[in-house]
Predict the 3D structure of the following.
Amino acid sequence: MQITTLHGRTVERHAVVGLLDRAARGNGGALLFHGPPGIGKTALLGYARTVATDVTVLAATGLAEETGLAYAGLQRLVEPVLDHAAALPSSLARVLAQAVAGAGCPASDRFALSMAVHALLVAAGRDRPVLCTVDDIDLLDPPSTDALTFAARRLRDQPVAVLFGAGPDTALGGIPARHLDGLDDTTSVELLADLLPEPPPARVAAALVALAAGNPQALADLAAALTPAQRRGEEPPPATLAPDSVLRRRYRRRLAGLPPDTRWLLLLAALDPELDASTLVRAAQASAMVIDALTPAELSGLVRVETHRVHFVHPLVRAIVHDEAPLARRRTGHLRLAGVLDGERERLRRAVHLAAAAVGPDPHLAAELERAAASGGGGYLTASVALERAAQLTPEPVAAATRLVTAARYAWLAGRPRRARELLGGLVGGPVGRQGVPSPDSLIPEVPGAVTVGPELLGTIQLLRGEIELRAGSAAVAIEILLAAADLLAEHRPDLALTALVRAGEAANFTGDDRRFDELTQRATALRHPVRSPATELMFDHVVGFGAMLRGEHHLAVPALRRVVALATRLDDAAALAVASADSLLLADDQAAHRSASRAAELARTTGQVALLPRVLELRACAEYWLGPDEAATETAREGLRTARDTGQDNCAATHLGLLAVFAAIAGDHPACDRWLGELGEGPDGESRPRALGQWALGVLDLTVGRCDDALTRLAGLADPVTGHGQILIQMMAMPYLVEAASRCTDPAPALAALAVFDDWANDTGDPARRAISARCHALLAPRGSEEAEAAFRTALLLHPAAGSEFERARTELLFGKELRRSRRPRDAREYLHSAWESFVHLGAQVWAAQASAELRAAGEAVEASAVPVSGALTAQQLQIARLVAEGATNREVAARLFLSTRTVDHHMRNIFSRLGIRSRTDLVRVMSS
């Protein structure tokens, strides 16, 4: 599969075009692109040949087979222009002819030969400019390299451009060099879409992009290996490169050219991702080698050795080094590493290496693996591998099944749902043996037969299956799996049964089936026991309190939910804090929700429980929405989307896409909203949370362009507040927009029921911010120009907390200003409209700033384009971006310099323009220089 379009590389392409332009004007030069195999050097040199017009193109590639043939590379490059040698002085023409004819060049004539090469290129350029591209110059024969680089350093005032491509860390003295980094994720997805007949599902694209890690050739090889079922997401994508892939062949050739001792040390490094330099030194000594044997691999750019880790140039290189070694040699390597690892400090790693070298069942080693995995210190993925190996080593079927379940739980926590599912795959009524991804190093035969597990283990399996299904499958199916798990666990593990009910409640809430909480509350009450742990009490109170809140029984809900928040703070556990964050949102305590979610995210990262992050970040983004929908909420949702995709959690990814669409719609960023909705697509089936978020976003867009009837239909359709059917919590968040749409329509009745529910919630929680929004909504539904409307608006402004959402206060001021102006009180209106306009400009809320500006003009006041100082209007990162753009950098160049994606820079630029009240880069230069 060929890469036909050069994606990304804007900076590099500009460098190529600039070099060609200078050569066309008679002021040539040279440039070196270096990086690992497959990174795009060849594509860039090909791009240069494509865009070069009316030039003589000379091209050569270094070949390992000709490295020992002096001047073989030079001959291939200059052969098309050798007829120009007649114009050279006879002494130069003679040495050049001898060299390219294979007669060599004495040391005394090498300077003359280098001058001859330079003169030949200059002579060829007299007819028209010359472009030379020399790929893989690090494989070119050294005499050719010396002659060509000599000439390339002396092209000033000559119509010749030379481009070199080389491996990582290659340097050519006196020639400018650019290192090629990997493509960012966005560009990788674009390349993948170009390589395939149709764009793959997001989870497939995310898996391939993660595996390719920015290498374009790796992405092309992986795309070429996909089956139709893999392209559709019906089967798992490849886990590594195919044996005949282009990139694997390139690395295979590199490995074959290394000394045997170097390949052995590379294999040791490949067998242990956590290998540090000191351990590698000890392993080399135990192998009767010196660490210097690794030097050829370092010089070739395959590995980089640092104090705390041995890094491969690309993750796939580690897999290639591993796969190309014979099984027996890998087994010997595992034993060698186990022999030099500390049995106490590195217990888990040592046990994993011993297990990889085992040749048959070994109950003692299996037990040691289990103990080492439970002791921590190796990360959940390593622990999952250890428990899978322990199951393979365990002759007793039920014990093997138990260890596989734990391995699956660890895989899930590590963010590997597909691996977790595979490990669980054969346990329910199937054989217990080598489940999941089999170890390529294991010599243990599959354990035949089947096993019947008891209700406790089966319930644990179903609990994990249900949790994975909730995040990465069908939430409706997850409810039934989780309820079945609760039944199986009720007698012996009521704590896990309550956990299953908590997850079932989350699934019900996700699908818009909150009526199921009555059943969940009854089940939780039946499980309550006089002796309870804090964790069990937390889960019980959550189910009961959440259900009571959804039924409108706030007097029962509030005390239970507050106990949850207090218990979670004591437990300081990521999962418990996530529950507390959700409950704090129901209590309208946004600061507490944000604190709990932030602490949960911190704990999830430090403990390696990355599977928890997407849900935790969703809760934090919702808290940030209530605190003020600004860039913090958007950035949190972006991080949540990346994490959800990285961990294969499609439902969480869809929720974050919905949130991003809502935040973009509220910010007035219609293109971004359309983009997020496009990625969301149909979303999960039914009245799911992502679909409701998408409708909310579309309702806001309808409202901002005056389609009030459409906005009312969308927003009123999110839920039925009377029955509680649908996404009632999303409708409560969207309620201010629902009421505003209703106030502009002839029949505001659809908003009244939702406002009544919101009022009860706001009054019972006592939150002033919610009560302010409630008062504003009542003002909007009151008769226009009435004392009732004015009093409600003034009440809302009094209730808005000083440290609360600046956005919501500005919305109230804007709507109050509108009310006053349309009541023929323009002088009174201007005070509120001007305050609203300043807030919206400061927040970067362009669409609302435009509305406030229009209302101000209608009220008789004009506003300046930029009333907010640059330093006060922009964040630190926005200020940095603005300065670079004002200096002439493109968005792509800014992204490369600040290590951001181009989309992120585009997003910041829109906010910069909005916050400064400007429309063009010219305006930005003026503002930044003033």
Notes: The longest helix spans residues 455-472. The two ends are 53 Å apart (CA to CA). The domain at 773-863 is CATH 1.25.40 (Serine Threonine Protein Phosphatase 5, Tetratricopeptide repeat).
